[in-house]
Design goal:
The chain has helices at 2-9, 19-51, 54-80, 95-123, 132-159, 162-191, 196-223, 229-241, 275-293, 309-325, 359-374, and strands spanning 247-255, 261-270, 295-304, 330-338, 343-351, 378-386. By secondary structure, it is α/β, with parallel strands linked by helices.
Length: 390
């Protein structure tokens, strides 16, 4: 069914990195979600009212909120298609994240209201009228929601969308909550245990948890997440394989929404290489990263000295001393500036997140070791870079 819908509504679906394909997939998910959830909400409201079941009614309202969520998702992907303009030169792709945040808010409000109703039912229980029509509607709901979870999960993987992944998880949670509602109805039918209010409360908790998790997933990229490890690996593997590249560091990726990523990177090349040749190679790297990975990459050219034995010796010595302090410490941009009384060693240290706040002690330990080994001839001028960017 998923493949059939993709063939019918998504052109060029073999190229999921294309922004138009991404938007089409997102809108398809929204439309399917609207139709399925409205159908389920109407069916459950009817049987919930007839059966006087707060848990079934709660589940129906949950489906109604899911339909609203699908509408917001549809609008989010539609607005994300808007081209860049004078006031938004980086485009509007973050609308996808904002739609997810709006969905989270709707889910939290519904969950809170349903929780209140369920608590009232716990303290003021009333009998639930169960029929096999009710059971059939709930079983049908479970099957539809299970398919929706698989459907959204496949689309999420296809376009790497946190919003659609959240929709898949939400549908999976709905399967669990509807099973709980069905269990409550069957329990009262066969045993007379009035646990409808408790099951309704459980449904509300599932809704609230879904809303909280979705809020976390959508707020995180808006705040600025670390670089996707797979994307980072692809970029640095490619850069490292390019001709004349001796090293690279300080990769920073800025996410303005799916398909709108901008990055900067320092690339090291021999200072004796022809600058015009290096410039041409860097242009090629930037162009290829945009075509292959969808990243607007800007590369800073770092010329490095490769024919100074003393500089090489001191670089190796500083690296060895730092490795004793912590194996994860590394350096780059190593330079030497000789003076009359001493020589400055100027370089950057890659600092693991766990060692933040220890910069002074690391530099002090390094200088003490250098003084003991070289008689105080070298001073250090260190810039500490977080490992997240290296």
């Amino acid at each position: 069914m998923t493949n059939l819908l993709l063939r019918m509504f998504v052109k060029n679906r073999q190229n999921p990195q294309d922004t138009k394909v991404r938007a089409a997939v997102g809108k398809l998910s929204g439309l399917v979600g609207i139709v399925c959830n409205l159908f389920l909400a109407i069916g459950k409201l009817m049987v919930g009212t007839l059966a006087a079941s707060v848990s079934i009614t709660a589940d129906a309202l949950n489906n109604l909120s899911d339909a609203g969520s699908s509408i917001v998702t549809l609008l989010g992907f539609k607005l994300a298609e808007l081209p860049a303009d004078e006031n938004h030169p980086y485009g509007h792709a973050r609308y996808e994240y904002l739609s997810g945040l709006a969905v989270a808010g709707m889910i939290l409000i519904i969950g809170f209201e349903l929780g209140k109703s369920s608590v009232e039912k716990i303290f003021n229980p009333s009998p639930v009228t169960f029929t096999w029509i009710t059971g059939g509607v709930l079983v049908g709901s479970i099957l539809v929601k299970l398919w929706l979870s698989l459907f959204n999960g496949k689309l999420a993987k296809m376009i790497h969308s946190a919003t659609l992944e959240a929709a898949a998880v939400d549908s999976r949670n709905d399967v669990i909550s509807t099973v709980a509602v069905l269990a409550a109805a069957l329990a009262e039918y066969f045993t007379s245990w009035q646990i409808d209010g408790f099951m309704g409360l459980a449904v509300a908790v599932f809704i609230l948890c879904s809303g909280i998790n979705l809020a976390k997933e959508t707020i995180s990229p808006l705040l600025g997440e670390a670089t996707d490890p797979e994307l980072k690996r692809l970029i640095v593997t490619y850069i490292g394989s390019c001709p004349k590249v001796l090293g690279y560091h300080d990769l920073m990726v800025h996410d303005y929404g799916p398909g709108q990523r901008f990055a900067s990177l320092h690339v090291e090349m021999d200072k004796d290489e022809d600058a015009l040749v290096c410039h041409e190679l860097i242009d090629d790297m930037e162009r290829n990263c945009l075509e292959n990975y969808g990243v607007h990459l800007v590369i800073h050219y770092d010329p490095v000295v490769t024919d100074n034995p003393e500089l090489d010796r001191m670089r190796q010595l500083v690296t060895a001393i730092l490795k004793v302090k912590d194996e994860r410490l590394a350096i780059h941009d190593f330079r030497m500036v000789p003076g009359e009384g001493h020589t400055n060693l100027i370089f950057d240290v890659v600092l693991p997140m766990e060692l933040r706040g220890q910069e002074k002690s690391i530099q002090s330990a390094l200088e003490t070791a250098l003084n003991n080994l070289t008689g105080g001839k070298y001073y250090t001028v260190i810039t500490f870079d977080l490992s997240a960017f290296n």
